[in-house]
Write a structure and sequence with these properties.
Blueprint: H1 71-80, H2 88-96, H3 101-111, H4 122-132, H5 144-164, H6 173-186, H7 203-222, H8 231-234, E1 236-241, E2 253-257, E3 263-264, E4 267-268, E5 273-277, E6 291-292
Antiparallel strand pairs: 1-2, 1-6, 2-5, 3-4
Length: 298
Amino acid sequence: MSAGGGIPIREGDGILIRDGTTDRYDWKGYVPFEQMPFSLNPENGTVSSANNRTVSDDYPYFISHSFDLPYRINRIREMIGQKQVVGVEDFIMMLADQHSDYARLVTPYLLKLNDRQDEMTPLELQALDALEEWNHEINPALPAPTIFEFFRRCFLKNLLADELGELFDKMWDISGEYYIYRILTTGPDYWVDNINTPETETLNDIVILSFRDAVSSLEKDYGRDPSQWKWGRSQLIRIFTKFTCIDRKLQTVSASFPNCRNRQRGSQILGNHEISQSPSLRGDDSHELSCQFPSPQR
């Protein structure tokens, strides 16, 4: 399997604006086909892709800065590797899979907080217990995915907002996620410290701070009972439709997003939102639909 399309040969990374007064930064043709990224007869007998980085750091040509994080591809390859022969039913199962490789990476750092139980409130301990037996499935009936999602957002903010200031809210979301992935897989750096305090915080200090912030936000939004923090409840989308044929005019479909705080494909929806769209469907009666769409963070 070989990458398709054409990769231009040029100086620099192709992301920033370059001086156009000379031909220095002009394209110098395309990467030859034989040097394009490819996979030939891999040892495991499979090829797979999920918008992930497909070349190593020593690849001589610039492709992109916006590869997706490896969570989805890791899970895909894990599922493929569970069988010698993969059939249609297996691919159906893969498409419906809601296990989060991201949560699998992060949760062990949260469980280390068991060593600091004397610093935690009873509600924080209940939230920690909810993560103990979690298998990282984004199950709408469980509170653990909601705790993880709230922690993820607090963790990102506590790691980077002190250095970035107002730029934090303008940061491309995937950049921050890449930072989290890097420090959890290769070790923390000096950005972990909170520059607004005299102390030098460790990664574990930022983890417990972020966990406390997450539990505090959950308590504010859903109350003190962790059983009410279920993922399906926190990711509720209500859709109200009214279809009529009066004058053959199309009416609207409205949707409200109460407390929808999930990151999907690089975008983020925070707080309560409402949208209206005109449907390409007509009907004789008015209907009200309430639909629940748990959207897994992978």
